[in-house]
Amino acid sequence: MNMRTMMAVVMAMTCVMVARADEPAFKVDTITTPEGVSAEVGGLDITPSGKVAICLHDGQVWVYDPASGKWTQFAEGLHDPLGLYAKADDELVIMQRPELTRLRDTDRDGAADVFETITDDFGMTGNYHEFAFGPAVDKDGNYFISLNCASSGAGVRYEKRGEFHPDWHDGRMYSCVPWRGWVLKVSPDGAITPWAYGFRSPDGIGFDSAGNLFITDNQGDWLGSSKLFLVKRGAFHGHPASLVWSEGFTGKPLERSAKELDAMRRRATVIFPHGTMANSPTQMLEIPANFGVFGGQLLVGEMNTARLLRVMLDEVDGQTQGACVVLLDNGGLAKGDHRFAFDADGTLWIGMTTRGYWVGDNGLKRVKFTGNTPLDVQAMKLTRDGFKLTFTKPLDEKTATAEHFAFECYRYAYHEKYGSPQMDKQTVTVKKLTLSDDHRTAMVTLDPMKAGFVYELQLKDVRGATGESVMNPIVCYTLNKLRNE
Amino acid sequence: MPIRPHAIGLMVGIMLGAVAAFGRADTTEIHLETGPGLKYDITRFVVEPEARVKLIIHNVDEMQHNLVITQPGARMDIVNAAMAMGADGIAKNFVPDSPKVLWATRLLNAEETVTLEFTAPKLAGVYPYVCTFPGHGILMYGAMYVGRELKLPPLDKDEHVPPPLDAAASMEHMQHLSMNDQPHVQRTFMRDCGPAAIAVDLGGGHSYCFDAGACRLRYAWTGGFIDTRRHLTGNGDAFAEAIGRIWYRSGDDFPLRISTDDRAPQVEFLGYRLLHRVPEFAYRVDGVEVHERITKSPEGQGLMQHFEIAPTKQPVRYVVGSNAGAAFSAVQRAIVYNTVSIDATHGARFTLAMSPLPNALPLKYITCNDTLWSGRPLPVDGVVGRALPFRGTEKKPQRVDTGVDANTLATGGTIMTWIKLDKPQDGLQTIIGSEADKQLFGLFIDGDTLQFNGAKESATAVIQHPTGMWHHIAATFDNSKITLYIDGKQASAKHAAIKLPATRLFIGGINKQYPLRATLDEIRIDDRVWTADEIAAMYKQEAGQ
């Protein structure tokens, strides 16, 4: 064999090896949106017949039929809609700035002709930051919506809607008309029940299949870093502006000290470390069983980078907490991943938005699992003295040692200032690492173990048994509560 | 404080700084503001090589921003390097440690200002400046052009500045809407209405604004639909603006009574249905369902309001209140003492026809109840509702485009406003004016002297006690006369033929000159000459509020 032939053979073999290791876990493709339409997606859902319905920043509503590749306009004229629920092919429920609206096509011409106000029973000052999100729909057909606080970046209108309290116009983000910063439960007939409060900019609200209500909130004043909450009825979730509408409230929102507020607040279920994981998380959605191996976990979107995140939940003494990790970085994704839905085949549909001017991209993408399971942390559970990390595939035991599992912990401050740096950051020693017989689970013993800290794991050149690298080597666990037994 | 990562650069800077202190008086001073949205308000400027530069950066946004000046072509490298700084970034103000960074500020919180002073590079070129906060740098940047006698490309073709926002699609959509003669509905933020506003285009440039919160028609206009571009491409703070002339404005009261007493009813908005694209609103008035559909009047001018009342034993009255601009008539019913009485025991329908009264409303009326710009200053208490403080300076002008070209007032015009000056100001200030061929047109104030300039001719009048209190001022003008009014009374008149430029009238300044530092309220511009009686009556009506 001459040199040339030998090189060709070597290259061919290398290519084959490289192709197998590099075949992506997810395939992303872009759907062309209608010409002349600025496809800044505020809401997205799959209709019962499998069409993709989207609502856009300028108020248009379009429906895409994946089978034919055709787009039809369902409606126009909504005000900054930021959530869509496809109840039927001819009935969409959409949350817009001023109200939760039921759009119906009663004359069967493919476009909505009835725009019914389900509820507009919340205040508006006209401040630009007063967005409205949802609906998350429970098994009884109740709608859960969330309302953004106003921002001191601009003023309030001369004419407002709802009972206005000028003395609550205080602080960087404020709530001086009813229910801003709250989650409201809306029954199908439109009656509202105030549900939970203490939110700032809760862009994503949704139920998992077990009926747990989740919400994301964005970094800002009183939020050191962005968060995911398992929403608790009647609880204060941390941002003081919306306290004013709670039962028995007196005085002004910022009269209470940070210490007092800290003692009252419900902790985040999962913190998204700013800069590392997400800067502006969007919607969360349960991953179905037919989308890879992460069925039952939560998908969370992010605006600032071309990224999808995944949340692995844990339960410690009856309390839910957990970890976040990247699901997919780039690989065909764009920025501005705002709204999501899975169709019956397990295809993920993503609606992106720049919201007129902000960071991101616009349009619609589709993600399919290729069947090529990536090497990733599948589950992260707290133990009494560390964590139990289960991987999607067996590890190369040579790389499953303490030196390859680097842990740090840090916490975020709870204060009025916008955001918080990572505080009290320290390296955490891995005292022991035990790999299970099937090489899929690593039990790590750590020191110190501290409640109230985020534990960040960086996997350093950990490899699978076949030599592949971990696809997403950084995992951040929000350790609210230590495990006692 | 400027962050200078390289010691050599620092040393050179100090040396040059020392040289500069010895008498080079020409420092190029630039005031730059952030946002709203991810941008700097100035996206490019020119300095000479080795010129002394003073950049004053003010963050009006609630997000944190910095400003980093890089070597030519290095913007994205630095942006990516800053993104990669991850969690440590904040402590380092997201300024990467790179020789490609020339000068950088710290991160600014809302309302903070920082000054960056440096000597411009010797080498001519295009030096990018950018905000390196993660996620911002792809949109938020500009270019410092260093050179002598540079010819810059037009802004929309300059690849060193951010591309124009892709409002094109939505703007086209909205323009397309108002030109294709089909009815359209758009919920958005509209001035002089509650926050839940519904703008409706009936086709042919006939439009109106319905207040979903108050469940009633607020105003109507002809000449187009709405311009939503600023609302959609900004952070949502800007209003959608009506295109055309508002010919009807409703009063403050809800017109329907479905009860035996006269108090304002409880209203609840139920939504709308579209009939051939035209909305029919549904709402409850004290629990009784009412449908209202507004259509174009068959004669082409004006509108028709078609009401349907659900069966109710309560007496139903529609009160035609202080509806500025329209003459009302009820189809096949009588209006007695401004009231239409309806028996709705078995349900009822009635129609009101609204015809525009010519010249009843001015060409342009700015209530000043809501802001005309982004951010501060915010509206304050005024004579009627709220008022707007203009706080412009030559460095930071604060002026508002009225949308009116001076020559549309060719057959005669009136400019009127309430004004409050806080402090005595020296120098000419623009109330409402424009400039053409270096000649001023419009209403100005110089110290205590009100001045109307009609290009070559002008009329003046002195305001007694000009500061600290509200004064009503007006100027009327036509081919032969300029008349000035203060507090409802004629203050001076001058026979003069004025020249009307084709240029746009602005409130608060002429380009960067003659900035206004006063609070204004109830601004009116009209294309006819108001009589002395009309002006006196307006003064009396508003002063009484």
Overview in brief:
Chain A has helices at about 5-20, 260-265, and strands at about 25-30, 40-45, 50-55, 60-65, 70-75, 85-90, 90-95, 100-105, 115-120, 130-135, 145, 150, 175, 180-185, 190-195, 205, 215, 225-230, 270, 280-285, 300, 305-315, 320-330, 335-340, 350, 365-370, 375-380, 385-390, 405-410, 420-435, 440-445, 455-460, 475-480. With about 475 residues, chain A is mainly β.
If you had to describe this structure to a student in words, what would you say it looks like?
The complex is a heterodimer of chains A (485) and B (545). With 485 residues, chain A is mostly beta strands. Chain A has three domains: 39-118, Beta Barrel (Thrombin, subunit H); 119-369, Neuraminidase, CATH 2.120.10; 377-479, Sandwich (Immunoglobulin-like). Chain A contains two helices and 33 strands. In chain A, the strands form seven sheets. Chain A has an eleven-stranded antiparallel β-sheet, with no helix packed on it. Chain A has a four-stranded antiparallel β-sheet with strand order 1-26-25-24, with no helix packed on it. Chain A is globular and about 65 Å long. Chain A starts with a helix and ends in a 6-residue tail after the last strand. Residues 10-21 of chain A have low confidence and may be disordered. With 545 residues, chain B is mainly β. Chain B has three domains: 7-157, Immunoglobulin-like; 168-356, no CATH class; 364-543, Jelly Rolls (Sandwich). Helix content of chain B is 10%, strand content 41%. In chain B, the strands form eight sheets. In chain B, strands 25, 26, 27, 29, 34, 35, 36 and 38 form an eight-stranded antiparallel β-sheet that branches. Strand 9 (114-119) of chain A pairs antiparallel with strand 17 of chain B, so a sheet runs across the interface.
